Amino acid sequence: MPEKGVIMEKLTCFKAYDIRGKLGEELNEDIAWRIGRAYGEYLKPQTIVLAATCA
């Protein structure tokens, strides 16, 4: 869990239709956690389905 009160730098991982970026540079565990947390807080979903593309 990230520290409270930490100011984030400008995020470059948000594109027009998705979220993507270089792992460890534009995307990391902290950013993924914050995006997921914000999604849950905003939508308050009852069920969540996650998907990933494996190359």
UniProtKB/TrEMBL annotation:
What are this entry's molecular-function GO terms? metal ion binding; phosphomannomutase activity
| Listed pathway(s) | Nucleotide-sugar biosynthesis; GDP-alpha-D-mannose biosynthesis; alpha-D-mannose 1-phosphate from D-fructose 6-phosphate: step 2/2
Keywords annotated in UniProt: Isomerase, Magnesium, Metal-binding, Phosphoprotein
Please state every residue range assigned to the domain named Alpha-D-phosphohexomutase alpha/beta/alpha. 14-49
* Any GO BP: carbohydrate metabolic process
Q: Which InterPro entries match?
A: A-D-PHexomutase_a/b/a-I (IPR005844), A-D-PHexomutase_a/b/a-I/II/III (IPR016055)
Concerning its family, UniProt says: Belongs to the phosphohexose mutase family.
Q: What is this protein called?
A: Phosphomannomutase
Q: Which organism is it from?
A: Enterobacter cancerogenus
Underlying gene: manB_1
